[in-house]
Amino acid sequence: MQSYQFDYYQYKKKINKRKTTGFVLLSFLILIALGLAMFLYPNSLGKNKFYLVEINSFLSYNEANDLANTISSLNGAGYVYYDGKYHVFASFYPSKKDAETVCENLKSDYPLASVYTLECDKFYRLKSLSDNQNKSIENLLSATLDLINSIYKCIINFDTDEISINQLFFNLDDIKSEFIKYSDDFFDRFKTDSKYNKAKKYVAKIVDTTDYFEELKEEANEQSVSQKLKYKLIDIVINHSCILNSF
């Protein structure tokens, strides 16, 4: 009877070949699935989410405004936002976890405090526009996100005494200059195109907010500067979402 010897190396070679073939096939199928998803659901791939600490919401503006004034006096934003109800926001956070932590800390005084998520679709290139126009919009949106994150960091550093009020204004001047480069380019490329008037309106509002930084320098009360920056930051976040929704 002929004896049989197991050839381990030949076996391993076959197994590796099967694994490689299987991996390539699986990768190919995944790519096809992603391609179909992008074709069928182009607006479902990725969202921009912004997290706001909501103190309470009301059906009446007067009630919301009264609470907003109270929050403002405590150095919160005191921002009233309407979407069918009047929401009172205390602050903006780029991280949902941070917003949730702040809400938990507020529960003892404001049991209805919660995280309000402002969500909007990301921008996808428009076939009706040239590459330069699409790039201008992308640069503007990216610059706005940088503006939001930079102001947020300034507020945190100022409130924790890591920077002085003079350094705060110096930083805000730099932040504004960087943003204005991209907003000017956007206005130049779309100044005669009425189809994008809504987008231009919201961009103009953000530019107005950066101009407001100069007025803040007249504030004698440092707490007032911090509170108003928090308010303006939320205003920029909301206008940024409006820009996205206008395309």
Topology, please?
Blueprint lengths: L7 H33 L6 E12 L2 H13 L5 E4 L3 E8 L2 H11 L7 E8 L9 H29 L5 H26 L6 H20 L5 H25 L1
Antiparallel strand pairs: 1-3, 1-4, 2-3
Helix pairs in contact: 4-5, 4-7, 5-6, 6-7
Write up what this structure looks like.
The structure is a single chain. This protein is of the alpha+beta class and 247 residues long. The chain has helices at residues 8-40, 61-73, 96-106, 131-159, 165-190, 197-216, 222-246; strands at residues 47-58, 79-82, 86-93, 114-121. β2 and β3 (86-93) form a beta hairpin. The chain is globular, with a radius of gyration of 26 Å.
Put simply, the count of helices is 7
Q: Decide which structural class fits the backbone.
A: alpha+beta
Strand content: 5-15%
Main β sheet profile: 4 strands, antiparallel
Task: Summarize this structure as a short list of keywords or feature phrases.
247 residues; alpha+beta; Four Helix Bundle (Hemerythrin (Met), subunit A); 4-stranded antiparallel beta sheet; 7 helices; 64% helix
Question: What is this structure, in a nutshell?
Answer:
The chain is α+β, with helices and mostly antiparallel strands and 247 residues long.
